[in-house]
Amino acid sequence: MKYSLLASLLAAPLLSNYTQAQTPLTVSKPVAAALEQVQPEAIKAHIAYLADDRLKGRQPGKEGYQMAVDYVTKQLTSLGVQPAGEGGAFVQKVRLRRTFLKPGATFATRDAQGGALPLTAGQDYAIYPSPELPTTTVTDAPLAFAGFGISAPELGYDDYAGLDVKGKVVLIVRGAPRTFTSTVASASQDLSGLLQAAARHGAVGLIVAATHATPLPDLKRGTYSVLGADGKLAASRSFAVGSRQQLYAAVSAATLSHFLQTAALDTTQVFAAIRSGKPASAALRTTISASAQSTFQDIESYNVVGKIPGSDAKLREEYVVHSAHLDHLGIGAPVKGDSIYNGAHDNASGVACVLEIAKIYSKLKEKPKRSMLFVFVTGEELGLLGSSAFAANPTVPKARIAADINMDMPTLIAPLLSVVALGGQHSSLLEPVTRACAYMAIDLEQDPEPEQNRFIRSDQYSFVTAGIPALHIKYGNKTADGRNNLNQQVQEWRAVTYHKPQDDINGRFDFEAGRKYVQLCFLIGYQVAQSPARPAWNKGDFFGQRYGVR
Q1: CB-neighbour burial class of residue 550 (10 A; exposed 0-12, middle 13-18, buried 19+)
Q2: Which residues contact residue 204 at a Cβ distance below 8 angstroms, ignoring those fewer than 6 apart?
Q3: Do the domain assignments include residue 210?
Q4: How many CB atoms lie within 10 A of CB 153?
Q5: pLDDT range class, residue 13, cuts 50, 70, 90
Q6: Same-domain check for residues 362 and 254
Q7: pTM score of the predicted model
Q8: Which one of 71, 265, 404, 503 is most buried, by most CB atoms within 10 A?
Q9: Residues 265 and 317 grouped into a single domain
Q10: 314 and 292 within one domain
């Protein structure tokens, strides 16, 4: 690591403000010495325990997940990290609701002439259970096509403009106009937002249609939502919280085509229009009738939260969060004879990195100015539920959370030569990232996989929608052989490992890359903790305007 005889991060503020983007990062000898103590073997040991078969895939509500909670709590305690959960403990209770559809649900259509379209459950349509209403009913509700279901007049695009959907069922397809930037396009496809947009416009239900011949969702294992402390629904990706939504369903591409044809709409022309940024919404000559009954199974799970108090009398009342999800998929369908989904990369590796960052702080005699919060959340694999619960009702004042740096499956399979700061371009957080990368001699790249919608698929997005600047550091494309095709290697790795039992400690790992990742993420968070200026959304930024007023 590099040393500097200049003013150090500990002795004096490094950054007078976040506008000095080219100011080189300097660190003190104590910080550099603490960084050097990060050991690949320690990262491996954390992953080996958390991804052991004994933990049975760390499914929330199961014994294996509790073992993971106990392990993280023990590690934090050994580092002198203070509990920052509920009631003086390390844990925050998260109430998860698993919802199942009872047999006997119905779904029928009728066109303007009274004709019915024969539909087969599981092939032509799938009805989601309601996590809040035991019984839901829609009777002859008119169907309206609302393109992508996006209502973003501030971006010059609104599928609901001029479309009356009060008392109707809205039909949409997933996607966004090509004119949207990648992260805004990703956020515009967030199901929670799509459901809320339909409800705000008065719709009684939402149907999401496939655009290709792909299987419909298999809902036999139920859906998951999160309950608030009052027992009411707090977050869900299958229900518009606070509404009386009566229907959420999926239909096949063939069913979509039939619905559009009843209103003389050409599928190809409609898709071309909305992709180019021209809404093609229309009332359809079809009505929907549906009924369903749902059953609930409520589960207790836990986030783990620890803190290291800051050293500044004023700034210590603000918090910089390092987060990672602790859960995985549990036990599932066997693959090559193995049914335990260990989740070594996803996300025992991220948890290990947060623990090692906490260890760096524990070794610093003088702590950073802001307080550090280490948050290990449940239910990420179920729809970002643990982070949604924490961001909505954090164990510290929400207004005092300055930023979140999230670590989810950093994909430690090759030397860490470049990274992508997902979400960094939306706030001043990009500047500490840039400095840290330059200090570490790591290239900072654009997202090589914008089509993966990664910005909204991990826990940093829960903080973003709570108005808190956040980012997620992922691998870039640079490789030691100069081919710069790590993205291709990751795709090949994912095909045989991701969300499969093969994601275990015996798989492909580069623990030295884990060491560099820990050091890099520490330096990002440390700069935020030291700077007098709090992170801010960029002027006019979409996320800052939509969520940033707190």
Answers
A1: exposed
A2: 138, 141, 167, 168, 169, 244, 245, 246, 247
A3: yes
A4: 10
A5: very low
A6: no
A7: 0.92
A8: 404
A9: no
A10: no
